[in-house]
Write a structure and sequence with these properties.
Layout (H helix, E strand, L loop, with lengths): L25 E6 L8 E5 L5 E8 L7 H9 L12 H8 L3 H14 L7 E2 L5 E7 H8 L4 E4 L5 E4 L2 E5 H4 L2 E5 L14 H8 L12 E6 L16 H8 L13 E6 L6 H11 L9 E5 L11 H18 L5 E5 L8 H8 L40 E4 L3 E2 L5 H17 L2 E5 L11 E2 L5 E2 L8 E2 L7 E7 L11 E2 L9 E7 L5 H10 L15 E4 L2 E4 L3 E5 L2 E6 L1 H21 L9 H4 L2 H4 L2 E2 L28 E2 L1 H9 L3
Parallel strand pairs: 11-13, 11-14, 12-13, 14-16, 16-20, 20-24
Antiparallel strand pairs: 1-8, 2-6, 3-5, 3-9, 4-5, 6-7, 10-26, 15-19, 17-18, 20-21, 22-23, 25-26, 27-28
Helix pairs in contact: 1-11, 8-9, 9-13, 13-16
Length: 638
Amino acid sequence: MRLSGVLSALALALCVTSSPTRRGNHVVHEKRAMEPKRWQLVRRLEADKVLPMRFGLTQQNLHKLEEMLMAVSHPESPTYGQHYTPTEVVDVFAPSDETISAVKDWLVEFGFSPERLRLSLNKAWIEVDATTAEAEELLQTEYHVFAHESGIEQISCHSYSVPEHVREHIDLIQPTVHFAHRLPRDFKPSQQKRDFQRLGMPGAHSGPKTNGVKVLAAPSDLSTCDEMITPDCLRALYSIDRTPVETKKNTFGISEFTPQAFLAEDLDIFFGNFSPSQVGTRPKLISIDGGVVQTEDQSFDFNGESDLDLEYGFALTNPQPILLLQAGDLVEGASFNNLLDAIDASFCTFEGGDNPEFDGIYPDRERGGFDHPESCGIIAPPFVISTSYGQDEASVTNAYAQRQCTEYGKLGLLGTTILYSSGDSGVAGDGGCLDDNNQESENGTRFNPDFPVSCPFVTGVGATQVNPGSTVSDPESACMQVIFSGGGFSNFFEMPSFQAEAVTNFLTNHPPPFPATQFNASGKARGIPDLSANGANYVIGVDGELELVFGTSCSSPVTGSIITLINDARIEAGKGPVGFINPAIYTASFQKAFHDITTGSNPGCGTIGFNATEGWDPVTGVGTPNMTALLPLFLALP
């Protein structure tokens, strides 16, 4: 699934160089990730327009985040499993007094009186209401108004600058380069549907794919797993054999984004065929920013993802309850940041809060919208969160991506496993490949990785398949039916230490058969994915019938189910959840617990993509899990 942007009441502005501010050499701090389409520049923003400026302060100790995460997640660490409390995490990373003073002094020296400046309770951001003229001089930029044919206007800027001595103390400033791409829900439905799928809400083109095959009779054994994947096929493939006993202590969350929603009758059709004791079972709804399980729009596009995630999550972890993290109202929708707000109250205001370009802004003032305060810290982080949605890394700014990635690292410190599917377009992004200007283009040839899976603090899940004519006892290959497993190397994030040996071995022993200019071939970039699971020919109940679906959307909830079962065993043994699993699964001792995938590739951008090979590869990661082998390894850890 893709995430689409949300509409801001503000309007877009183009930032260009203006007159210098009163102190220091300015340097460009941030620029817009992609230029807006179907919008026209109409005028300069009025000089007396008041803008609610927010300055996101750089948190301290972020450079220690990976080290801290390794200390509680690496199996050889003496402090493995000693996860932090939420209060400890906030205290460790709160901006320093030096940072707060540096930004305040800059603003006061510019001309803002101290009385105009406001510091958030968690010290994460400074706010001041400034006129356009003040903001333009402060940031050496110009604000312009852009208009859409619908009559909607937006402001933002192409780039902005800050004094060099202040830059290290600021992560991002709003409103500046951000541009809300989505149109109102009632504007030209056919056109709106494309925008609806662009950044902040799920789109059918990037969720589970269907080849249109209807399943007339549910399989009764394992003989057809090459044609139809069922829960029993997955149990056989990955040696899944445990009935949970700690269901009151264990937690498993599955993320969905409105208007994507499950249909109760679809779950029962699936359960009736594959897990009869669960007929009537439903997830516990956690409504985030007005999230609702809507039933007005019913089709594969609206129900396929949620039906798939819940059907397989429930069947593989029966009788474990599942928390449905349903984010966003029907008017505005939601983003990954809105989801993160709900499980970490401090994130709501971290670096200035949500971004109107990519995130839902609540209360929603549109008619029928969620008119209550945003959902901040309404639920403790589940031990496992599976998310089968994503977007192209190039569609967000680096600062935005880094901010969100930091939060995933913090959740790892708390003991949560964050899983994201790696995408279904091979080395190409959903919006296409990148041109020389790092813009998505029909003529682009540079690989376009997914986000948030490119963040090194999440576990990326690719897709495999049972080859036609093969059995569940035969080796799988990278998925090459209907979809291609997303993979490659991030253009934003550096290679984490736990992945260094695996990535270096791949690039050294299996050099890709295409120019290094087509991808981040530095040898220092985060590789994607981390592991894989089957993603082809899943039988799901959807819109009143059984149908086949494909995608890494299938792989993530299956992997989440396996980790949930492992957590159950650890809880029964008096231990805590495994949390961030990446440092463990890359170690030599854990390699025997994965089926190495050595065939198939992930084509895109006019190439065959990367090849699945011995060891880790940017198609299937370290391979597919063998739960029977994984369980004792994780149980042996503190």
